[in-house]
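About this split. The held-out portion is used to measure sequence recovery: a designer receives only the structure tokens and must propose an amino acid at every position. Recovery is the fraction of positions where the proposal matches the reference. Here is one held-out target exactly as it appears in the evaluation file.
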């Protein structure tokens, strides 16, 4: 009997240890002893990999237990999280009216980012011409975001669940447009705001634009709550890829698509930045897009 009890106790201790080790958000690590900047490693069952999650809270976050904040989810977090956090801090000191929670979604390091972003940000599997060794896992990554990450963030922090923003650039902007499309297809209002800088919409012969075109029934009340902000750089027209259309033509297709009656009520804006190339659109898009979508949310 004693042996059995001891065995059961060991099992319980192992289970507790397993839970604590895997529930990384139970032990968020402050960065440089800053309680408003927290780093986590989070294992995703959907992706079957561990992601790096960095959270930045507003300066006055701990002064109220009841106030809730919009949450901006930043893909390619290894690259853009620190940049945008610094900009938000500076803007806040000069009268920027928005207090937001930032969540950077990234990988262990830049090498893993380069290796796995094509796996996680694309859907469906890439045509052979793209030469991607890993692709097509966007559906799994979207499940991670919506079913695993968002519930943890909402449980741990004072979030405004009706005011979430998803941002991406290039391939991760393709994922933003994919998440938007899946939102409409499945009548799922998990994100209300989408910001896409230079999305690779030419992926798989403009698969996403075709998917949007083929959408039949879209919930009007859902559309009325959604904003989508898309940009390109004019210098992207110098891209030697023959499969890549002129960006003005892509924008025109997107705007024509959104002008259809089935998209009535959707708040959308598309911009081509003059004298900017593909890698230069991310930061202006993020700042302008956040201002645009949050202004809309405040007005409503």
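Reference sequence for scoring:
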């Amino acid at each position: 009997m004693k042996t059995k009890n001891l065995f059961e106790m060991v099992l319980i201790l192992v289970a507790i240890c397993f839970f604590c080790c895997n529930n990384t958000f139970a032990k968020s690590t402050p960065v440089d002893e800053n309680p408003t900047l927290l780093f986590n490693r989070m294992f995703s069952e959907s992706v079957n990999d561990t992601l790096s999650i960095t959270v930045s809270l507003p300066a006055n976050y701990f002064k109220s237990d009841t106030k809730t904040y919009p949450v901006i989810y930043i893909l390619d977090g290894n690259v853009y999280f620190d940049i945008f956090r610094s900009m938000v801090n500076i803007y806040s000191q000069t009268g920027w009216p928005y207090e937001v929670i930032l969540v950077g979604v990234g990988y262990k390091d830049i090498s893993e980012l380069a290796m796995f972003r094509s796996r996680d940000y694309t859907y469906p599997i890439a045509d052979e011409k793209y030469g991607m060794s890993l692709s097509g896992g966007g559906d799994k990554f979207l499940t991670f975001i919506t079913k695993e990450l968002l519930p943890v963030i909402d449980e741990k922090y004072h979030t405004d669940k009706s005011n979430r923003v998803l941002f991406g650039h290039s391939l991760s902007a393709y994922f933003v447009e994919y998440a938007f499309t899946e939102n409409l297809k499945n009548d799922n209002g998990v994100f209300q705001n989408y910001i896409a800088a230079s999305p690779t919409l030419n992926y798989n012969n403009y698969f996403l634009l075709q998917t949007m075109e083929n959408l039949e029934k879209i919930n009007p009340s859902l559309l009325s709550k959604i904003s989508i902000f898309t940009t390109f750089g004019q210098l992207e027209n110098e891209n030697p890829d023959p499969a890549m259309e002129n960006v003005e033509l892509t924008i025109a297709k997107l705007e024509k698509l959104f002008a259809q009656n089935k998209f009535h009520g959707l708040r959308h804006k598309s911009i081509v930045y003059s004298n900017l190339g593909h890698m230069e659109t991310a930061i202006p898009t993020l700042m302008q897009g956040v201002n645009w979508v949050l202004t809309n949310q405040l007005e409503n």
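Annotator remark: The chain is about 45% helix and 20% strand.
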